[in-house]
Design a protein that fits this description.
Elements: H1 9-16, E1 48-51, H2 54-57, E2 77-78, E3 81-82, E4 86-88, E5 91-93, E6 105-111, H3 114-117, E7 127-132, E8 140-148, E9 152-163, E10 166-178, E11 185-200, E12 203-217, H4 226-229, E13 243-258, E14 264-283, E15 299-300, E16 302-326, E17 329-352, E18 356-357, E19 372-393, E20 398-415, E21 421-437, E22 442-453, E23 469-481, E24 487-504, E25 512-530, E26 535-550, E27 566-575, E28 580-589, E29 592-593, E30 602-603, E31 606-616, E32 620-627, E33 635-637, E34 642-644, E35 649-657
Parallel strand pairs: 4-7
Antiparallel strand pairs: 1-6, 2-3, 4-5, 6-7, 8-9, 8-35, 9-10, 10-11, 11-12, 12-13, 13-14, 14-16, 15-18, 16-17, 17-19, 19-20, 20-21, 21-22, 22-23, 23-24, 24-25, 25-26, 26-27, 27-28, 28-31, 29-30, 31-32, 32-35, 33-34
Amino acid sequence: MSKTPLNPAWRYSALMLSLCAAFGARAQTAASSSVETGTPAALERPVTALVVERTELDASGAVAPATFGGSEYNRDFLRGFKNDSALRNGHRDYGYLGTECFCAMETIEVLKGPASALYGNGKPGGDLNSIAKMPGLSDYRNISLFTSSPGMSRVRVDVADVVGDVSYRVNAQAYTGATYADRNSRDSAFIAPVIEWRVTPALKLTLSYSGGYLDTTWNPQLLANQALLSLPAKRFLGEPGNRMRIVDNTSRMELDYKLANGDHIRQALLYQVESYRDAGLSYDTYNYALADLVDAAGMVKRVSQRDHAHQSILVSQTELIGRSTLAQMPWEYVLGLELGRFDYRYKLEVGAGSAINIYRPQYGAAMAGKLDTYADQDYGTDNAVLYAQNRFQITPALRLLLGMRAERFRDYLQEAGESRSTDTDSLFSPRVGLTYQLNPRWIAALSWTNSSRPQIGAKSASGKQFRPEAGTQAEASLQYTAPDESLKMTTSVFSITRKNVLTQDLASPNFQIDSGRRRSRGVEQDLSYSFTPELKLDVSAAYTSASVSQDTVLPVGALLAGVPKWFSSIYLGYDLTPALSLGAGHVFESRRTATLPDNGVSLPAMSSVDLTVTYKTKKWSIDATLVNSGNKRGFTSDGYTVTPINPREFQLTGRYKF
């Protein structure tokens, strides 16, 4: 089946849940060198990669809707736990602001099991790694124009060339217009140049930059209040003067040197500075419980609120990537040293604000003249990490993975007017995995993954910072590939436990202690079937049971908020002709608990269908997509705030190579 330039979100949603990365297979990023294995392709089971386009990934589980604060990564869940960080070209992203422009991204890798724990995000269940578009194309120029029925417009430019030993690529994007929400608009611009210089046949230098801004209406996120959730998705309960602005500057440098024996030494540096500001009227969750936000007359309580955040990240990674033999066994290895520093400053100010009617909103209220400081914090961490991942081919069919991450960190936290508190600790996170090729068609795999993560920016009633959160995952999978590769099927079973989760300190109820535990168990099934070279079906389904296993306040067995027990997605693509392609996709999520502890409000089951048609020639293409064609209501959740899915929306994209 030929690849169309644009497919709807649901095809890639199906891929999201597939079991990714052969146990021990390193994330193959554009900033790293792959290690040739010389083993059967069936054993490699490469990392799943998603081709990135806004209309492909909206609501697919890989990114948040366009109105979600400008952040284009989804901060929701992977295998039942919050996905609050990601990787960028193999670098750790601490996951607070995390703005990234899709215009500069080639793929998103979805890592599961041991591969996800290599760079220490503390998420044994999975991770996302975005990979930048890299140079190497000769005389390439592409422009695309996008428009949507609410009134959003976008232009993208992608230019690349090779000049002698130097190649470059520049991606740029500008967005402007109205979102589907009333009185909401969005403006943004990003530019991302990359230069690659082949200094010698063995030495390559890569320099890249990503910078831009987002200026948008600050739309208060919905909360688990039944009256608020009953409103149309377009309803806006802030003020037209509410504003939010994010500014991002990220620079990367990498040296890759190929040794005489074929091994690679990689030295990479990342430096990122981001700032965030918002100001306007939002819901008064400071003085009212969620159930009391809206009164009998339909008036929702509001406050004047102003936030300011600033973060800086500096990361150095030095890696040796290669292959050898050990006791006559083929051996692949990644050995690395990571040095990092993360600093974050946050200030929150709150004042009085007028209520607004949720059914017949009348705008025009101004912010209060005086705001009180609710939070004023500086916190961060310094860390030094040794990590290794080794894969041994014991027999032609059997592989063993042994990996570990040893980390020494120093966290700090300083509240305004208080002295700085610090905490130093060490972490050790081992992992092991086995893959066995039962026969040419079947592969079985087992893995056990451990991860640890410092709890940055929090302290106990005694003033001490908390123990690191620890997680473990056990996973088994079975994969089948038909002789003609028309059918590929993977079944995975997993169990994840996270301990040292923060929970309420009963002796000091305004503080927390690190004695909670959470557990997630599930089954994932993925199937890809080609009826003919032109007609292909992708199906994905998952059952996830995520609950509290230990807590001081919450009942054992309470479901984790926002996590659907049942998820499924189906995508059917058909190439009518080499130029004309059709696609249809369906996604379903079962009813979910809205908050933890459960306040009695749940999010209804969600079912949505996308339709797309693509016409392409050698020089240009046109994609027309009808998002949520049935105009169904639905919500996603991060476990507290709630985001409605896009109402029915028509999107049109044209591309031209010149």
